[in-house]
Amino acid sequence: MTATSDLAGPRLASPDLLRAVFRRHAAGVAVITARGASAPAGFTATSLTSVSADPPLLSFGIGTGASSWPAVSEADHVGVHILGEHQRELAATFARSGADRFGAATAWREGPQGVPVLDGVLAWLVCKVHARVPAGDHRIVIAEVVVGDPAGTGRPLLYHQGRFTALRD
Protein backbone atom coordinates (compact mmCIF):
# COMPACT_ATOMS: atom_id res chain seq x y z
CA MET A 1 0.00 0.00 0.00
CA THR A 2 1.44 3.38 -0.94
CA ALA A 3 0.51 6.75 0.45
CA THR A 4 -0.52 9.41 -2.02
CA SER A 5 0.18 13.08 -1.55
CA ASP A 6 -0.55 16.33 -3.31
CA LEU A 7 2.92 17.60 -2.41
CA ALA A 8 5.58 18.01 -5.07
CA GLY A 9 8.03 15.89 -3.10
CA PRO A 10 10.72 16.33 -0.51
CA ARG A 11 12.91 19.42 -0.63
CA LEU A 12 16.25 20.11 0.98
CA ALA A 13 16.26 22.16 4.19
CA SER A 14 15.97 25.90 3.68
CA PRO A 15 14.28 28.89 5.32
CA ASP A 16 11.53 28.65 2.67
CA LEU A 17 10.90 24.97 3.46
CA LEU A 18 10.63 25.71 7.18
CA ARG A 19 8.20 28.59 6.53
CA ALA A 20 6.10 26.44 4.17
CA VAL A 21 5.79 23.64 6.73
CA PHE A 22 4.96 25.96 9.63
CA ARG A 23 2.27 27.73 7.58
CA ARG A 24 0.41 24.43 7.93
CA HIS A 25 0.84 24.46 11.73
CA ALA A 26 -1.92 26.36 13.54
CA ALA A 27 -0.52 28.27 16.51
CA GLY A 28 -1.97 30.34 19.29
CA VAL A 29 -1.19 34.05 19.18
CA ALA A 30 0.50 35.92 22.02
CA VAL A 31 1.96 39.37 22.47
CA ILE A 32 5.16 39.65 24.46
CA THR A 33 5.87 43.02 26.14
CA ALA A 34 8.80 44.51 28.01
CA ARG A 35 9.68 47.81 29.59
CA GLY A 36 12.23 49.46 27.33
CA ALA A 37 14.85 52.07 28.23
CA SER A 38 12.78 54.90 26.76
CA ALA A 39 9.42 53.32 25.86
CA PRO A 40 7.56 50.02 26.16
CA ALA A 41 8.29 47.37 23.55
CA GLY A 42 6.34 44.38 22.31
CA PHE A 43 5.82 41.94 19.49
CA THR A 44 3.42 39.26 18.28
CA ALA A 45 4.62 35.71 18.91
CA THR A 46 3.36 32.32 17.80
CA SER A 47 6.30 30.49 19.36
CA LEU A 48 5.01 30.51 22.95
CA THR A 49 5.52 27.17 24.71
CA SER A 50 4.92 25.83 28.19
CA VAL A 51 8.22 24.38 29.41
CA SER A 52 7.65 23.22 32.99
CA ALA A 53 4.83 23.20 35.54
CA ASP A 54 7.11 23.12 38.59
CA PRO A 55 8.66 25.61 38.52
CA PRO A 56 6.25 27.32 36.08
CA LEU A 57 8.42 28.07 33.05
CA LEU A 58 7.62 29.11 29.48
CA SER A 59 9.61 29.99 26.40
CA PHE A 60 9.28 32.06 23.25
CA GLY A 61 11.51 32.97 20.34
CA ILE A 62 12.50 36.43 19.16
CA GLY A 63 14.68 37.46 16.23
CA THR A 64 17.80 39.42 17.14
CA GLY A 65 16.97 41.86 14.34
CA ALA A 66 13.49 42.59 15.74
CA SER A 67 12.79 46.12 16.93
CA SER A 68 11.73 44.71 20.33
CA TRP A 69 14.92 42.68 20.81
CA PRO A 70 16.93 45.46 22.53
CA ALA A 71 14.24 45.81 25.22
CA VAL A 72 13.76 42.05 25.61
CA SER A 73 17.52 41.48 25.68
CA GLU A 74 17.84 43.77 28.73
CA ALA A 75 14.54 43.11 30.52
CA ASP A 76 14.43 41.33 33.88
CA HIS A 77 10.69 40.70 33.39
CA VAL A 78 8.38 40.30 30.37
CA GLY A 79 4.63 40.22 29.86
CA VAL A 80 2.97 37.36 28.02
CA HIS A 81 -0.55 37.97 26.70
CA ILE A 82 -2.83 35.34 25.15
CA LEU A 83 -4.96 37.04 22.51
CA GLY A 84 -8.62 36.37 21.77
CA GLU A 85 -10.19 36.08 18.33
CA HIS A 86 -11.55 39.62 18.81
CA GLN A 87 -7.96 40.96 18.82
CA ARG A 88 -6.82 40.40 15.23
CA GLU A 89 -6.02 44.09 14.78
CA LEU A 90 -3.99 44.14 18.01
CA ALA A 91 -2.03 41.09 16.81
CA ALA A 92 -1.43 42.79 13.46
CA THR A 93 -0.31 46.01 15.14
CA PHE A 94 2.28 44.22 17.26
CA ALA A 95 3.43 42.21 14.22
CA ARG A 96 3.82 45.24 11.94
CA SER A 97 7.26 46.82 11.65
CA GLY A 98 7.26 50.50 12.48
CA ALA A 99 3.77 50.48 14.04
CA ASP A 100 2.96 52.61 17.09
CA ARG A 101 2.29 49.50 19.17
CA PHE A 102 1.49 51.33 22.40
CA GLY A 103 -0.37 54.26 20.80
CA ALA A 104 -3.91 55.39 21.52
CA ALA A 105 -5.48 52.35 19.83
CA THR A 106 -3.80 49.98 22.33
CA ALA A 107 -5.36 49.75 25.79
CA TRP A 108 -2.66 48.92 28.33
CA ARG A 109 -1.35 49.77 31.77
CA GLU A 110 1.83 49.40 33.75
CA GLY A 111 1.63 46.07 35.55
CA PRO A 112 3.74 44.21 38.08
CA GLN A 113 7.49 44.83 37.80
CA GLY A 114 6.73 47.78 35.49
CA VAL A 115 5.82 45.42 32.64
CA PRO A 116 3.25 46.71 30.11
CA VAL A 117 0.04 44.68 30.53
CA LEU A 118 -2.50 44.71 27.69
CA ASP A 119 -6.22 45.07 28.45
CA GLY A 120 -8.91 42.75 27.15
CA VAL A 121 -6.74 39.67 26.60
CA LEU A 122 -7.80 36.11 27.41
CA ALA A 123 -4.97 35.73 29.91
CA TRP A 124 -1.72 37.43 30.87
CA LEU A 125 1.43 36.59 32.80
CA VAL A 126 4.38 38.56 34.08
CA CYS A 127 7.50 36.42 34.03
CA LYS A 128 11.09 36.74 35.29
CA VAL A 129 13.59 36.08 32.51
CA HIS A 130 15.95 33.20 33.34
CA ALA A 131 17.84 32.68 30.08
CA ARG A 132 18.24 33.87 26.53
CA VAL A 133 19.53 30.92 24.52
CA PRO A 134 21.16 31.59 21.11
CA ALA A 135 19.34 29.73 18.30
CA GLY A 136 20.39 30.80 14.81
CA ASP A 137 19.15 34.34 14.10
CA HIS A 138 16.87 34.15 17.16
CA ARG A 139 17.06 33.82 20.90
CA ILE A 140 14.88 31.44 22.86
CA VAL A 141 13.82 33.25 26.02
CA ILE A 142 13.04 31.07 29.03
CA ALA A 143 11.08 32.80 31.78
CA GLU A 144 9.46 31.87 35.09
CA VAL A 145 5.89 32.92 35.82
CA VAL A 146 5.64 35.43 38.70
CA VAL A 147 1.99 36.55 38.52
CA GLY A 148 -0.89 36.44 36.07
CA ASP A 149 -4.58 36.47 35.35
CA PRO A 150 -6.34 33.70 33.35
CA ALA A 151 -9.85 35.20 33.72
CA GLY A 152 -10.39 36.84 30.31
CA THR A 153 -13.33 35.66 28.26
CA GLY A 154 -13.63 34.56 24.66
CA ARG A 155 -11.98 32.15 22.28
CA PRO A 156 -8.30 32.11 21.28
CA LEU A 157 -6.86 33.81 18.22
CA LEU A 158 -4.92 31.48 15.92
CA TYR A 159 -2.31 31.97 13.22
CA HIS A 160 -2.52 29.62 10.22
CA GLN A 161 -1.55 29.81 6.55
CA GLY A 162 -0.06 33.28 7.03
CA ARG A 163 -3.11 34.91 8.57
CA PHE A 164 -4.94 35.39 11.86
CA THR A 165 -7.99 33.18 12.19
CA ALA A 166 -10.38 31.64 14.72
CA LEU A 167 -11.45 28.18 15.81
CA ARG A 168 -14.35 26.59 13.96
CA ASP A 169 -16.83 24.33 15.69
From TrEMBL:
<dbReference type="InterPro" id="IPR012349">
    <property type="entry name" value="Split_barrel_FMN-bd"/>
</dbReference>
<dbReference type="Pfam" id="PF01613">
    <property type="entry name" value="Flavin_Reduct"/>
</dbReference>
<dbReference type="GO" id="GO:0004497">
    <property type="term" value="F:monooxygenase activity"/>
</dbReference>
<dbReference type="GO" id="GO:0042602">
    <property type="term" value="F:riboflavin reductase (NADPH) activity"/>
</dbReference>
<feature type="domain" description="Flavin reductase like">
    <location>
        <begin position="22"/>
        <end position="166"/>
    </location>
</feature>
<dbReference type="InterPro" id="IPR050268">
    <property type="entry name" value="NADH-dep_flavin_reductase"/>
</dbReference>
<dbReference type="InterPro" id="IPR002563">
    <property type="entry name" value="Flavin_Rdtase-like_dom"/>
</dbReference>
<protein>
    <submittedName>
        <fullName>4-hydroxyphenylacetate 3-monooxygenase, reductase component</fullName>
    </submittedName>
</protein>
<keyword id="KW-0503">Monooxygenase</keyword>
<dbReference type="GO" id="GO:0006208">
    <property type="term" value="P:pyrimidine nucleobase catabolic process"/>
</dbReference>
<dbReference type="GO" id="GO:0010181">
    <property type="term" value="F:FMN binding"/>
</dbReference>
<keyword id="KW-0560">Oxidoreductase</keyword>
